[in-house]
């Protein structure tokens, strides 16, 4: 096995080539061989010329992971995952299979745009406080566990993104979750239906959770290619259009390699680029227009940026307003969506980049918390008790000891990852046990904390989480 060969577990985004990142393209280009599920390989077919390509059908995930690792004997290999590899993708299985054969330093998880981020940006949704992500497929996870998580997220009043909501044979599970979220039809929530996000045949529309529960015809329009987002506290609805002079651009966690093709193209043709200095530096090589980073307090800066954007729009200019990570998740994009006709371009989220840097901690259901809520510790406890992995933004490493009391009863060996300035030059990463939070290895703010869910372990400094394939396959 060539010592220089690498395994890239590559997230190609939800489907549109516009949402493929530069790093994903580079990883595929570097690989001598490519392995993946046939429909996903079709989405990047023009990048595979001259490579050994192995495509397999549905249900062959373990075979794909094994083959990708075996192919390292012949050179680097790209194991393709749609969306993001850590969101119901190949990251966990790929790392687990690789860990028995190669040094994990030779495995790179390449994050991508996941479907719930893409759908939220297209619909003008912003999550200001939290969001839970749940798959309703009980093929690998017992239904009792899925329902427990849906109930916990609903009791906290979190927005919920539902993957794999309904299939031809699996229909009652969606009904049950809708009953939980509406308390049997007593309350209601906005519900976004997003089918074939960023692919041919894309269709997004709004209804309500109660209407979906009561209308069988509506439920029959939901299938395995559909994503649902159920509203909750802190979720706002704006309006994003396919083209506009003002663009809200997600620049990812920091490394410009994680910019999507769409983000790069929009920034490159903008007459005015607005945002914090660190974001402007990250995209500096792409800019041809004027760049402005306003000073003052947060409210003052946002007001100034919006004013400058509107003035430029009035002059017929194209504007990019830069947001770290993804505009839909814990950003101030909602302030602009409330007042302007804009296009929202998704970015790789901080949770996604941090997860990729520490291994595969999120391949099952997970929840994101902004970290600004006074009830953060209580929410972390409840969510982890129900089996979620949990990501908490905006953490100060010196204050993490307060979380230990909340999670200690769940097991002192529960793995965690702490990422400060993930993917930036000043990046610092720590992987350890829950009890180590009382004495973090570095100090400072801008930390993303990842608390892995059940079936997670640490190997060679990486978090590896089983998704349940062991219930179906011997590997």
Strand tally, please? 25
Give the count of structural domains: 4
Q: Proportion of β residues?
A: 15-25%
User: Radius of gyration in whole Å, from Cα?
Assistant: 21 Å
Helix content bin: 25-40%
CATH superfamily of the largest domain: Tetrapyrrole methylase, C-terminal domain
The shape, in one word, is globular
Record the strand order, biggest sheet.
Answer: 10-9-11-8-7-19-20-23-21-22
Going by helix content, strand content and strand pairing, the class is alpha/beta
Our count of helices gives 16
Q: Which whole number gives the mean pLDDT?
A: 92
Largest sheet, in brief, is:
10 strands, mixed
What gap, in angstroms, lies between the N and C termini?
21 Å
As for the CATH topology of the largest domain, it is: Methyltransferase, Cobalt-precorrin-4 Transmethylase, Domain 2
Q: Report low-confidence residues grouped into runs of 5 or more.
A: none
In short:
With 475 residues, the chain is of the alpha/beta class. It has four domains: 7-113, Tetrapyrrole methylase, N-terminal domain (Cobalt-precorrin-4 Transmethylase, domain 1, 3-Layer(aba) Sandwich), CATH 3.40.1010; 125-237, Methyltransferase, Cobalt-precorrin-4 Transmethylase, Domain 2; 246-347, 3-Layer(aba) Sandwich (Cobalt-precorrin-4 Transmethylase, domain 1); 365-454, Methyltransferase, Cobalt-precorrin-4 Transmethylase, Domain 2 (2-Layer Sandwich).
């Amino acid at each position: 096995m060539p010592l220089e060969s690498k395994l890239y577990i590559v997230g190609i985004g939800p489907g549109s080539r516009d949402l493929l990142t530069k790093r994903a393209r580079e990883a595929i280009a570097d690989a001598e061989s490519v392995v993946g599920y046939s429909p996903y390989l079709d989405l990047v077919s023009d990048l595979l010329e001259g490579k050994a390509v192995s495509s397999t059908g549905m249900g062959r995930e373990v075979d794909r992971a094994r083959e990708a690792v075996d192919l390292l004997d012949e050179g680097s290999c790209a194991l393709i995952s749609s969306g993001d590899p850590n969101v119901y993708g190949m990251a966990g299985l790929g790392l687990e299979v690789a860990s028995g054969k190669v040094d994990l330093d030779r495995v790179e998880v390449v994050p991508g745009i996941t479907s719930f981020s893409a759908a939220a940006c297209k619909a003008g949704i912003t999550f200001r406080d939290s969001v839970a992500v749940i798959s309703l497929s009980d093929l690998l996870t017992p239904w009792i566990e899925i329902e427990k998580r849906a109930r916990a997220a609903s009791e906290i009043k979190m927005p919920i993104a539902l993957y794999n909501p309904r299939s031809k044979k699996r229909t009652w599970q969606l009904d049950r979750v809708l009953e939980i979220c509406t308390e049997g039809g007593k309350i209601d929530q906005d519900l976004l239906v997003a089918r074939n996000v960023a692919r041919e045949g894309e269709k997004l529309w709004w209804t309500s959770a109660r209407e979906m529960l009561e209308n069988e015809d509506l439920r029959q329009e939901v299938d395995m290619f559909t994503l649902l987002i159920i509203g909750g506290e802190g979720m706002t609805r704006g309006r994003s259009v396919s083209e506009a002079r003002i663009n809200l651009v997600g620049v990812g966690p920091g490394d410009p390699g994680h910019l999507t093709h769409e983000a790069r193209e929009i920034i490159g043709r903008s007459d005015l680029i607005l945002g914090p200095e660190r974001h402007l530096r990250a995209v500096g090589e792409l800019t041809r227009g004027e760049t402005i980073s306003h000073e003052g307090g947060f409210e003052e800066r946002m007001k100034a940026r919006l004013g400058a954007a509107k003035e430029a729009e009035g002059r017929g200019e194209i504007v990019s307003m830069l947001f770290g990570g993804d505009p839909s998740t814990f950003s101030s994009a909602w302030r602009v969506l409330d007042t302007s006709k804009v296009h929202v371009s998704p970015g790789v989220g901080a949770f996604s980049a941090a997860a990729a840097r520490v291994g595969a901690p999120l391949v099952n259901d997970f929840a994101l918390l902004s970290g600004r809520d006074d009830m953060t510790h209580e929410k972390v406890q409840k969510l982890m008790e129900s089996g979620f992995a949990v990501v908490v933004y905006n953490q100060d490493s010196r204050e993490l000891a307060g979380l230990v009391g909340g999670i200690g009863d769940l097991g002192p060996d529960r793995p965690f990852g702490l990422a400060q300035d993930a993917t930036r030059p000043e990046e610092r990463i720590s992987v350890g046990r829950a009890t180590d939070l009382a004495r973090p290895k570095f100090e400072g703010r801008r930390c993303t904390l990842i608390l892995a869910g059940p079936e997670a372990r640490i190997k060679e400094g990486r978090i590896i989480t089983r998704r349940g394939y062991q219930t179906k396959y011997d590997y």
